[in-house]
């Protein structure tokens, strides 16, 4: 059996090719892929050849946020043909030091689909047909679309970030950066009962989507940088910040606007940047990193299936696989696009 797929060879060199699909073995399923979102890391691979120390060093099929329909189940699999599932791209080994300590996110032998972090690279989901372990497939609700189901992975990232923040209910929250993750972070904070959610970004289109996801107020800091000054008086206003931009000016403004002993969860990823350590020390701030997810994937599927979190406002464009290069170009235009998905 053959499948069409998108394979990235180096920066800007994404090719539509054909490859062979194996039959599903015991515990595996063959999926007819339905929708797959272009993530920020995919975009970095395409635009820059990688991000930070993670570089594309060999051909890779990108894509780690996707949904598909069960076409054939291997031996021992209960999933029925025709069922729509969200695919969890995370494959911790289950027996290394960190897996045994209950921290599978930090698995020493982690296999994460579509990631160039290790050699050989882990191949991803931008393909028509895919064989995966059934344990990575989560059935979605009957009314859930393939596009919504494909948002389970980025929502999982935000749910894990929320878990790193501690108590959110009743808190005043600042979210810096209103891309797909920032917008979903708004939804996660609202779901957890935040009293107020202020979002900052440079693009009006992104801020409008953040409001659709539940933001109390949206500030375009490229046009109204002084608007954050009101939050800096009295040593700061916000109890909690989710920093989703990885931009140095946003991080500095977050530190200025957060109250003493507040919590900053760093969601966005970048290289090395200078930060005001004196303010962090003086305010006794709590700063947490957050990476990926584990048990949150099942939660994300349930929340999307019930529409307790409605992800539809972030889904801006869907293009067929053969237009993958156009889809990547569109995903890089924040004035026009939010979550761009490939369809199969």
UniProtKB/TrEMBL annotation:
<dbReference type="InterPro" id="IPR036291">
    <property type="entry name" value="NAD(P)-bd_dom_sf"/>
</dbReference>
<dbReference type="InterPro" id="IPR002328">
    <property type="entry name" value="ADH_Zn_CS"/>
</dbReference>
<protein>
    <submittedName>
        <fullName>L-idonate 5-dehydrogenase</fullName>
    </submittedName>
</protein>
<keyword id="KW-0862">Zinc</keyword>
<dbReference type="InterPro" id="IPR013154">
    <property type="entry name" value="ADH-like_N"/>
</dbReference>
<keyword id="KW-0560">Oxidoreductase</keyword>
<comment type="similarity">
    <text>Belongs to the zinc-containing alcohol dehydrogenase family.</text>
</comment>
<feature type="domain" description="Enoyl reductase (ER)">
    <location>
        <begin position="12"/>
        <end position="342"/>
    </location>
</feature>
<dbReference type="Pfam" id="PF00107">
    <property type="entry name" value="ADH_zinc_N"/>
</dbReference>
<dbReference type="GO" id="GO:0008270">
    <property type="term" value="F:zinc ion binding"/>
</dbReference>
<dbReference type="InterPro" id="IPR020843">
    <property type="entry name" value="ER"/>
</dbReference>
<dbReference type="GO" id="GO:0016616">
    <property type="term" value="F:oxidoreductase activity, acting on the CH-OH group of donors, NAD or NADP as acceptor"/>
</dbReference>
<dbReference type="Pfam" id="PF08240">
    <property type="entry name" value="ADH_N"/>
</dbReference>
<dbReference type="InterPro" id="IPR013149">
    <property type="entry name" value="ADH-like_C"/>
</dbReference>
<keyword id="KW-0479">Metal-binding</keyword>
<dbReference type="InterPro" id="IPR011032">
    <property type="entry name" value="GroES-like_sf"/>
</dbReference>
<keyword id="KW-0614">Plasmid</keyword>
